[in-house]
């Protein structure tokens, strides 16, 4: 199976979407650049191994995620935008409402399966709210891949600009300075 890579922008937008609405479930789509045909005989993990690079994230909803008409419209509009800009909808992310719940629900699996109909290397990414702390020393996501009609968790094999991403992750968690402002 191919690996997954996230740009700093995609990772931070996804995590910060959850941070902006900590009392709600949030979801969104991940987009990748359109891929050129590749040779299937490349060794896994080797220098020519294939990775899906998620270049951006498009936040969708917070609160109620199972709004089928709004989701259909969003998918149609985003798919049209992707075609115009040489991108493809390649993944789905979700952060659940409950802090200790990081497993995909039926909505996440259905949306990701629908995306997988048009993109074979689709990833379902679940944000783990328990790992989103002041230190942010470990990745805050779980990556799921579609295998034999089921979504299975895999280790998060991705790369990102750790220093920049961690700085952005920490900023909404830090309290604003107290006292008079200096101008």
From TrEMBL:
Domain MPN: 4-150
Chief subcellular location: endoplasmic reticulum
Compartments (UniProt record): Endoplasmic reticulum membrane
Region (Disordered): 163-183
Pfam family, one: UPF0172
Membrane topology, from the record: Peripheral membrane protein
Biased composition (Pro residues): 174-183
Assigned GO CC terms: EMC complex
Subunit text: Component of the ER membrane protein complex (EMC). EMC8 and EMC9 are mutually exclusive subunits of the EMC complex.
Record-linked PANTHER family: ER MEMBRANE PROTEIN COMPLEX (PTHR12941), ER MEMBRANE PROTEIN COMPLEX SUBUNIT 8 (PTHR12941:SF13)
Protein family according to the UniProt entry: Belongs to the EMC8/EMC9 family.
Protein name from the UniProt record: ER membrane protein complex subunit 8 isoform X2
Record organism: Delphinapterus leucas (Beluga whale)
Gene (name only): EMC8
